[in-house]
Amino acid sequence: MSGENSGGSNMSHHGETHSERLARKARDAPFMVAGLAGLTGLVAYGIYGFKNRQLKTSLYLIHLRVGAQGFVVACLTAGVGYNLYTKFLAPKLFPESVEDTKE
Question: Among candidates 39, 24, 31, which has minimal Cα distance to 79?
């Protein structure tokens, strides 16, 4: 019956550890790693800068939010550019290497 295997993909990852799950997600979505690294860096910068700030708190938090939004936009732009390159530009520039990966 076809209904027996519904949701089977979720069960295949049932026994994996946190590090194995992070490694699998990094292979599936490499920009997630960049996002996590950016988040970690921005939080560290925020804590350091909040301790040593020369601005009012509200203005500092606004600057921090704008920096975070800029990082997200940069990651999204890089991800879209990478996908466009691999789907449209790379097959035209390197047709023999694309045919090798389809086999």
Answer: 31
Distance CA 55, CA 46 (A): 13
**What does the pLDDT look like over 18-62, one tens digit per residue?**
888 888 888 887 777 888 888 889 889 888 888 888 888 899 889
How far is 71 from 3, CA to CA, in rounded Å?
Answer: 43
Distance CA 11, CA 80 (A): 30
- Sequence letter at residue 46: G
Whole-angstrom distance, CA of residue 51 vs CA of residue 62:
16
- The answer for residues whose C-beta is within 8 angstroms of residue 30's C-beta and 6 or more apart is none
Whether this model's pTM surpasses 0.85: no
